[in-house]
Design a protein that fits this description.
about 500 residues, mainly alpha, 26 helices, about 70% helix, elongated
């Protein structure tokens, strides 16, 4: 019946055979093998039968018998040859449900017959790769799940064809359903680890766009992927090294708007350095560090030494990348970059002094951004700079870089200096007083909002320096008096009067 010329006869024969097999006790592996030896050639042909039901039953019968047959490893090559003929390089099966049935059959094969998979690895991987391009989401998802399993359990098996799998897995990551994209990302992660030198560049180009994926599940899966790659690819021969490119993706997660994604990012950051940096991370601790209470959210307290060491070792490329984001045309990108830079500074601590000019330029730009949230976050960064960088160094950068012709650019630099002076220590403020007193001498800085910022900077230093630096008390009084004359009749008048009084009492003392 199975080879009859009439398709209805073939279908009826398959129906009766399938019902009979389901009613039997298939515990005798030898008998099952004998039955499959007879049926396999017919089922292989029937996979391409004109009747949809016949093709479906052919797959069902193979799936029912193959895993219960004696020495079934020997049967897998002809089974895969039959499937490959129909599904590679592109599927010719028109029915979605049958394509799904075949992929589910392959999933069972890779999980239940791992030793046999190696003998047919090329065929299985080629078919699964082709099915990743399928239009049916469940076919794409199950294909990715199977590829992930092979790459995780037997990386050597897929190492040779790993590069060719990146493109079809990219198709999975572009699907509109988040559950499909999540499985595609997991599979891509595993395939990349199986052969990083051949796959990393292409794979990274794909995942680097997922920080802004609309699904929080995908963004969380991205963080898991980056964390795994940071641990497994650190000793690879990839050039340029992957870590400086991967770490910003974790910091983007720290800036995510959803608490669950932030939490996943925090966990990943705290895990940094647990393998590669052990035993060599304490030597270069910076002089200035943060107290637990000064560490910004979502971090909770000072991160472990290993995590801080990893960030310090990758600080330069990280800073450059995030500063570029602060000037992006998208508000969402600018805000995330500011949030990420804030967390980066918290982990790098006093080491940011070696990059203070670049950081200061980016923050000064963000302090006059059109978006209020961006300005607020940059103000937080300026306060952190005040704790981690000596205030004289910060004011020196401001005096060297801020244009003395005024305008929006000068306003941003003054706001940066003001934020740093507000959180600086008393010793820093005392040391910075001579530089602070230079600010009122630049007329262009005393126009509009700049006047308030200059008053704030000079006032912070005068207040901290009171009764400490009597030799500068006269200069402090003169600078305050000039500011007072300019502030007369404005909202700043009372504030300046206080600073004049402070400076005057210093002179008397």
């Amino acid at each position: 019946c199975l080879s009859d010329a009439d398709k209805i006869t073939r279908k009826r024969g398959l129906d009766r055979l399938f019902d009979h097999l389901q009613s039997q006790n298939l515990g005798d592996a030898q008998q099952v093998r004998q039955a499959l030896d007879i049926l396999l050639p017919h089922c292989a042909v029937l996979l391409g039968d004109a009747a949809e039901r016949s093709r479906e039953l052919a797959v069902e019968i193979l799936s029912l018998l193959l895993f219960k047959a004696e020495n079934n490893n020997e049967l897998l090559p002809p089974v895969m040859d039959a499937i490959k003929d129909r599904y590679f390089p592109t599927s010719v099966e028109p029915t979605e449900e049958i394509r799904l049935l075949v992929v589910q059959f392959l999933c069972k094969i890779v999980k239940q017959m791992p030793s046999a998979v190696e003998s047919c690895a090329d065929s299985i991987l080629q078919v699964l790769g082709a099915c990743c391009n399928d239009s049916f989401p469940d076919v794409k998802k199950n294909s990715a799940v199977a590829l992930q399993h092979i790459a995780n359990t037997s990386p050597a098996t897929c190492s040779g064809v790993a590069k060719s799998l990146v493109k079809p897995l990219t198709s999975v990551l572009q699907h509109q359903q988040q559950k499909v994209r999540v499985e595609g990302l997991k599979a891509l992660s595993a395939v990349t680890i199986a052969n990083p030198s051949a796959t990393f560049e292409d794979a990274f180009a794909v995942i680097s766009k997922l920080s802004f994926d609309r699904s929080p599940q995908v963004r969380s899966a991205l963080l898991a992927t980056v964390s795994v790659w940071m641990k497994n690819l650190s000793e690879s021969s990839i050039d340029p090294a992957p870590a400086p490119r991967l770490l910003p993706l974790l910091f983007q997660g720290l800036a995510d708007e959803l608490p669950d994604v932030k939490s996943a990012a925090v966990s990943a950051v705290l895990e940094l350095g647990n393998n590669s940096m052990e035993g060599k991370m304490i030597d270069d601790e910076p002089e200035r560090t943060l107290a637990d209470a000064d560490v910004p959210a979502p971090l909770e307290g000072r991160p472990p030494a290993a995590a801080r060491a990893v960030v310090r070792s990758l600080l330069e490329p990280m800073v450059n990348l995030l500063l570029g984001g602060i000037s992006d045309w998208l508000v969402e990108t600018r805000l995330r970059s500011c949030n990420a830079l804030l967390c980066l500074c918290a982990l790098a601590e006093g080491s940011i002094i070696s990059h203070i000019t670049g950081i200061a330029k980016g923050v000064a730009h963000g302090l006059v951004d059109d978006d209020e949230q961006v300005r607020s976050r940059c103000k937080d960064i300026s306060h952190l700079i005040g704790k981690l960088v000596p205030l004289p160094d910060t004011l020196s950068v401001v005096l060297k870089n801020s244009p003395r012709t005024g305008g929006e650019s000068a306003e941003g630099w003054l706001k940066l200096a003001r934020g740093a002076s507000e959180s600086a220590s008393q010793l820093d403020a005392v040391a910075a007083l001579p530089m602070a007193l230079e600010l009122p001498s630049v007329d262009a800085w005393l126009v509009g909002p700049g006047l308030g910022d200059v008053i704030g900077i000079v006032g912070s230093c005068i207040s901290a320096s009171s009764q400490k630096v009597s030799s500068l008390a006269g200069d402090a009084y003169n600078a305050s008096a000039r500011l007072g004359a300019l502030a007369d009749g404005t909202a700043f008048n009372q504030q300046v009067s206080y600073y004049i009084d402070t400076a005057f009492r210093s002179i008397l003392i």
